[in-house]
Amino acid sequence: MYRLEKYEFEKFMYRPGHRANYGVLTKPGNREWGMKYSPQYSYASEHDVLKKFSHPQIPKRNSCGRGILYEGEKMVLTNHYIVLQHFEGEDIVQYYKDKGVPDAAEIGNVLKYFSTVTVPLEYLHTKKKHVHTDIKPGHLLLDLETETIGLIDLELAIKMGDILKGMTKEYAAPEQKQMMKMLQELPEDVSEKTVTKQISIDGRADLYSIGLILFEVLTGKIWTETKQPPIEINKDVPEKLNNIVLGLIEENRDNRIQTAKELKEDLLAV
Questions:
Q1: Are 95 and 62 in a shared domain?
Q2: Whose CA is closest to 137, among 266, 270, 18?
Q3: What does the pLDDT profile of the chain (270 residues) look like in tens digits?
Q4: Are 99 and 156 members of one domain?
Q5: What's the half-sphere exposure (Cβ side, CA atoms, 13 Å) at 202?
Q6: Is the pTM of this model over 0.90?
Q7: What residues make up the domain containing 229?
Q8: 180 near 167, Cβ under 8 Å?
C-alpha cells in the first residue's frame, strides 16, 4: 500500500513519455479519484486551470499539494501531487497497436470513438475559449464500456491567444512549433507579448494533433515518418475518412478543418 498525505493507493502506473506516476485511490472506499504525482513537477497550474471547466469528458479536480510518499511505513520521496476524477480507459493509440490496424468492420468504431472527442474539444474551444495544446497518445482515453474518449492532462492548456506553456513536439501543430522557436530566439529585453502579435494559437492546433493520432490509429504508422495518405497504407480506409485526416494535418491552418463541430459532422457523414 502506498500513501501520500491522506491519500492511499495499492499500486501505481508509470508510462514512458509521461511526467507523472498515477495511482487510483482506495479511500474513501471508491475508485472515483486518482492521483498524479511527481518529485519534480508541480500541478498547481493544472489544478488552477481545471477549475474553469465542467464537462463529463474532462476530469474534475479535487486537491493538489506536496507531501511525502510512503510505501507501507517506509518513506520513499517527497512528491508534488494532484487528485483528479479517475477515468477508466485505454490510450487509444496503444489500444489499436494491440488490436491491430482497423479493418473495414472496425472503421465504424474508429469513427464513433473519434466523434466523441470532438464534444469536449468544442466545449473547450467554443464555450471556454481554451486550447489543450498537448493532445497526444495517452491523453485520449478510450472507455470501451461507454464508447467515449476522455480528454485528460490539461496542465498545458491556455486561453486562446496566450503564450504556450509547453508542447510535445511530435504531436504539435506547425504554429505551435513556430511560436516556441520565436520564444526561444526572443531577445531578453523584448516582451513575450510581441510573439502573440505575430502568431496566435487557437483550436485548430488541437485539431492538427487529433489528425496525427487518427492517422496513427488507422495506419499503425507515424505521419512524419511516412507522409503517405492513410488510404495508401490501409486500403480499408474510406476515401472520405482519408480526406478528413488530410484535412486535419494541413500545415496551413487556414486550409485545415476549422472547428471540432465541423470535424464531428464530417466523421458522422463517412
A1: no
A2: 18
A3: 999 999 999 887 766 556 788 999 987 556 699 999 999 999 999 999 999 999 999 999 999 999 999 999 999 999 999 999 999 899 999 999 999 999 999 999 999 999 999 999 999 999 999 999 999 999 999 999 999 999 999 999 999 999 999 999 999 999 999 999 999 999 988 888 899 999 999 999 999 999 999 999 999 999 999 999 999 999 999 999 999 999 999 999 999 999 999 999 999 999
A4: yes
A5: 14
A6: yes
A7: 90-268
A8: yes
